[in-house]
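Q: Got a minute? One more chain.
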Amino acid sequence: MAQVKALGLNSADAQTAWYKGLQNANDIHQERAVERAFGEWADGDAIASHIAYGLDIFCSADVGKSNASKSVLDPVNRQWLEQTYGVKFMSFEDLLAVLP
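A: Always. Here it is, folded:
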Protein backbone atom coordinates (compact mmCIF):
# COMPACT_ATOMS: atom_id res chain seq x y z
CA MET A 1 0.00 0.00 0.00
CA ALA A 2 2.90 2.35 0.70
CA GLN A 3 3.89 2.51 -2.98
CA VAL A 4 0.32 3.18 -4.11
CA LYS A 5 -0.14 5.87 -1.48
CA ALA A 6 3.16 7.56 -2.42
CA LEU A 7 2.14 7.64 -6.09
CA GLY A 8 -1.23 9.15 -5.16
CA LEU A 9 0.35 11.77 -2.95
CA ASN A 10 2.87 12.73 -5.63
CA SER A 11 0.16 13.36 -8.21
CA ALA A 12 -2.47 15.03 -5.99
CA ASP A 13 -2.70 18.55 -4.66
CA ALA A 14 -2.76 19.12 -0.91
CA GLN A 15 -6.57 19.28 -0.80
CA THR A 16 -7.12 15.98 -2.63
CA ALA A 17 -7.18 12.57 -0.99
CA TRP A 18 -4.14 10.52 -2.08
CA TYR A 19 -6.23 7.83 -3.78
CA LYS A 20 -7.93 10.39 -6.03
CA GLY A 21 -4.52 11.47 -7.29
CA LEU A 22 -3.94 8.05 -8.86
CA GLN A 23 -6.26 8.90 -11.73
CA ASN A 24 -3.98 11.79 -12.73
CA ALA A 25 -1.21 9.71 -14.29
CA ASN A 26 0.32 11.89 -17.01
CA ASP A 27 1.71 9.22 -19.31
CA ILE A 28 2.11 5.51 -19.88
CA HIS A 29 5.09 5.38 -17.48
CA GLN A 30 3.07 6.77 -14.60
CA GLU A 31 0.17 4.46 -15.46
CA ARG A 32 2.51 1.45 -15.39
CA ALA A 33 3.93 2.60 -12.04
CA VAL A 34 0.42 2.65 -10.60
CA GLU A 35 -0.30 -0.81 -12.04
CA ARG A 36 2.94 -2.23 -10.58
CA ALA A 37 2.23 -0.66 -7.20
CA PHE A 38 -1.25 -2.19 -7.05
CA GLY A 39 0.19 -5.54 -8.11
CA GLU A 40 2.74 -5.34 -5.34
CA TRP A 41 0.03 -4.44 -2.83
CA ALA A 42 -1.86 -7.58 -3.89
CA ASP A 43 1.31 -9.67 -3.52
CA GLY A 44 1.84 -8.32 -0.01
CA ASP A 45 -1.76 -9.12 0.93
CA ALA A 46 -1.39 -12.65 -0.46
CA ILE A 47 1.77 -13.26 1.59
CA ALA A 48 0.18 -11.76 4.73
CA SER A 49 -2.87 -14.01 4.32
CA HIS A 50 -0.62 -17.02 3.79
CA ILE A 51 1.22 -16.30 7.04
CA ALA A 52 -1.95 -15.48 8.99
CA TYR A 53 -3.63 -18.75 7.97
CA GLY A 54 -0.49 -20.77 8.68
CA LEU A 55 -0.38 -22.31 5.20
CA ASP A 56 2.52 -24.59 4.30
CA ILE A 57 3.47 -23.56 0.77
CA PHE A 58 3.24 -20.30 -1.18
CA CYS A 59 3.05 -21.25 -4.84
CA SER A 60 3.86 -18.52 -7.35
CA ALA A 61 5.87 -17.94 -10.51
CA ASP A 62 6.25 -14.27 -9.51
CA VAL A 63 9.82 -13.47 -8.45
CA GLY A 64 9.38 -9.71 -8.15
CA LYS A 65 11.18 -8.63 -11.33
CA SER A 66 8.79 -5.81 -12.24
CA ASN A 67 9.33 -3.98 -8.96
CA ALA A 68 12.97 -4.91 -8.34
CA SER A 69 14.02 -4.75 -4.67
CA LYS A 70 10.72 -3.11 -3.70
CA SER A 71 8.92 -6.40 -4.34
CA VAL A 72 7.86 -8.61 -1.46
CA LEU A 73 8.63 -11.54 -3.78
CA ASP A 74 12.20 -10.62 -4.75
CA PRO A 75 14.91 -13.12 -3.66
CA VAL A 76 16.08 -11.11 -0.63
CA ASN A 77 12.57 -10.62 0.73
CA ARG A 78 11.70 -14.28 0.01
CA GLN A 79 14.68 -15.34 2.10
CA TRP A 80 13.59 -13.04 4.94
CA LEU A 81 10.03 -14.42 4.77
CA GLU A 82 11.38 -17.98 4.86
CA GLN A 83 13.59 -17.29 7.87
CA THR A 84 11.18 -15.08 9.80
CA TYR A 85 7.81 -16.70 9.06
CA GLY A 86 8.69 -20.12 7.67
CA VAL A 87 7.14 -19.40 4.29
CA LYS A 88 8.08 -22.12 1.83
CA PHE A 89 8.07 -20.88 -1.78
CA MET A 90 7.48 -23.25 -4.67
CA SER A 91 6.94 -22.86 -8.37
CA PHE A 92 3.97 -24.62 -9.94
CA GLU A 93 6.36 -27.20 -11.37
CA ASP A 94 7.92 -27.82 -7.92
CA LEU A 95 4.47 -28.31 -6.42
CA LEU A 96 3.44 -30.76 -9.15
CA ALA A 97 6.62 -32.76 -8.52
CA VAL A 98 5.74 -33.37 -4.85
CA LEU A 99 2.02 -34.08 -5.28
CA PRO A 100 1.01 -37.75 -5.14
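A: The chain has a mean pLDDT of 81.
Q: Perfect, thanks.
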